[in-house]
Amino acid sequence: SDHMENICGYLMKYTNLVTGWQYRYFVLNNDAGLLEYFVNEQSRHLKPRGTLQLAGAVISPSDEDSHTFTFNAASGEQYKLRATDAKERQHWVSRLQICTQHHTEAIGKNNPPLKSRSFSLASQGSTNSPGVQRRPSQNAVSFFNVGHHRLPTGKRVPIMQPDHLVDVREMMSQAEGQQRDLIRSIECLPASGHLTSLDQDLLMLKATSMATMNCLNDCFHILQLQHASQQKGSLPAGTTISWLEPKISLANHFKNGAAQNFPAEINKPASVREEQSIAEPCQLTREPEEINPDEELEDICDDKEDDLGAVEEQRSVILHLLSQLKLGMDLTRVVLPTFILEKRSLLEMYADFMSHPDLFIGITNGSSPEERMIRFVEYYLTSFHEGRKGAIAKKPYNPIIGETFHCSWRMPKSNVATDAGTNSSAHTPSEQVTLPKELEGQAEPDYYTVKFVAEQVSHHPPVSGFYAECVERNMCVNAHVWTKSKFLGMSIGVTMVGEGVLHLLEHGEEYTFSLPCAYARSILTVPWVELGGKVNINCAKTGYSASINFHTKPFYGGKLHRVTGEVKQNMTNTVVCRVQGEWNSVLEFTYNNGETKYVDLTKLSVTRKRVRPLEKQGPFESRRLWQHVTESLRDGDIDKATEHKRALEERQRNEERLRAETETPWCTKYFLKDGDGWVYHKPLWKTVCAAQTQQTDSN
To answer: What is the set of domains in the chain, with CATH numbers?
Structure first.
C-alpha cells in the first residue's frame, strides 16, 4: 500500500519534433486509476491537459538513456516521458507499474466478460437527449453493425485466386472505415455519466479493434507475398512485385491531444499522394538513357543558403535532436529536421564541384606530367568553394536509391588555359584525339562540352556514383562516395569514403584521389562548415603525387579553412610545388623555380550548369523528385516540406522492405559494381579504346 500512494511532480513530456520536450506537471491518481498532467502545478485545479487509464497500461524504461521511459495505455496512446535523473525515473516507473498492475487485476475481478454486457450509444450524437441508457436489447455488436459470416457446413475454403486479392483489399478498407467510426463514437461519449469514453470495456474494445486491424493487415501482407512467390516463376525477367496499395498503418491514427480527421488520406496534398504512389524505380525503365545536351538549358536557379535566422528559431528542435544522440553514433539512419536542408540533392552538390570546367579541361593541356599534376591540384582545391552554398552549414537531401542527376557545361575554347605558345584546340601528332564515331563528320563547335551524371547506387550504406567527361579533350572522371555521418558532441562529422579516378586519355594517365572529411560546427548557434583530414592524389604512370592537408581550426587561435599541400616527384622525392591558403578564399602556389601564383576563389568565374526542364526530366531525376520539397522550402513552409520529404522516405522504406521479402535484387541504371567500387557503364576510356581498335582494323 505504501507503494500505491498518489505521487506528483514535474516530468518532461515529448510532444513532437517541432515542439520537442516540455516540462509538465504529472499526477498519479491511484484512487481514480489515472495518470494526469497539467501545464504546471498552479493549474492543477483546472481540467487536466491529458489523462490516461492505468488499467492495462505498460510502463517501460527506455534504453536510449537512464532518464527516459514510456507509458503505453491500453487505448493505444503513448506518453514519452523523461525524469531529471535515473533515481527519479525509477521512482516513477516502480509506482506506475505497481498501480497499473493493481487496476488491471481489479478489472478482471470486478467486471464480467465483454460479451455478457450490452449497451447503446444511440443517443450520444444528440446534445439534447437524456442520459445514455444501457439496454439489454441492443449490444455493441448490433449497434456498430459488425457482421460475422459463417461458411456453410462441410464446404472447404476455396483457394485464393489473384483477382480475389482486390476483393480482400476492398473488404479490409470497409472494415478499417468501420473501425474508425467505432473509435470516433467512443471518443464522442461524455466524460461523465453512466457510460463514458473512459469505460473500461470501451477502452479495451478500442485497443483490441486496433490490434485486430493490424493483425488483418499483416495477414493480407502474407497473402501478397504468397501470391508473389507463386507467380515469380512465370513472370518475365525484370518484372518486380509491387503492393496493390500501401500497407495501412494504424499506429498513427491516434496522437496525444490531437483531433483526428478521417480519412487521413483525403487531407494530404495531391503531390504527397503522387509521391507515395510512384511505382518502384525498377518497374520503370532501368535502361540507361542518353541525355542530349542540346535539350539542356542554362540553369537559372540561384538558391543561396544564407538564412541564418531559421536555425536560431528552430533551436529547440536541434536541442531535441541532440538529446537523442550519443557520441560517435552513426547518423546514417537518423532523420534530420527539414529546416536544416539545402534546396538541392547530394547528387547535385557533387555536380556543383565541377563549376570551374575551364580548370578541369585545362588539366590535360599541361605540357608535362609535372604541370598536369599541379593543374589537377589547382582544380581540386578550387572545387570545394562552389560546392558549398553560402556560409551556413545546411545538409543536402539524402538521395533516394535509383535517383539520378544529369547536367552539362559549355566552355568556350578560348577560356581554357593552354600550354605556353600553343592553342587550346591544337594537339601534337602523338596526342591526336580519336573522336567517337557519333562525333565524326560533325562541324567542330567553338566550345567544349562537359557532361555529368550521378546516381544513388545504394541506400544502406548510402553510396553515390558520379561520372563526368569531355569527349573533345579525351578526359573523364569516375568516382564513388559513401557518406558516413557521426555525432561528435557540438559538431557533426561526415567522412567521404571512396575514391575517384581522373583519366587523361591523350596521355594515358590516371590520377586517383580521395575526398576530405566535412564538419558542421557550432550546431547550437549558427552552424558553419569546415573541411578536415589528409587526402592524396597519385599518378602511377608519371610517379608524381600530391599530399594535401585540410586543417581544422584549433580550440584556441588559428585560422579557419586553412589548407597546405605539396606536389612531388616520388622517384627523386623532390617537391616541385607547395600550396597554402584557405580553400574558400585565396590559395598561394609556390614553384621550385621561385615563382609564386595566387588564386582568389572569390573572383573565379563560375560557369552555370545546363539542366533539362522539369517537364523533360524522368520521375527519379533529382530536381523533379524533390521539387515539392524544394518549392515548400522556398516558400518557407517547413511543415509542408516535411510532409513531402516524409512521403518520399516512407516510399523508399516500403520498397526496400518489399525487395528484401521477395529477394528481388536492386538494379542500377548507369553504374556497375566493380570490386569495392562503382564504374560508369559506358566510360570514355572504353569508347575511345573501341574506336581506336576499329580504326586499326580498318587500316
So the answer is: 8-108 (2.30.29.30), 297-366+394-416+446-529+615-688 (no CATH)
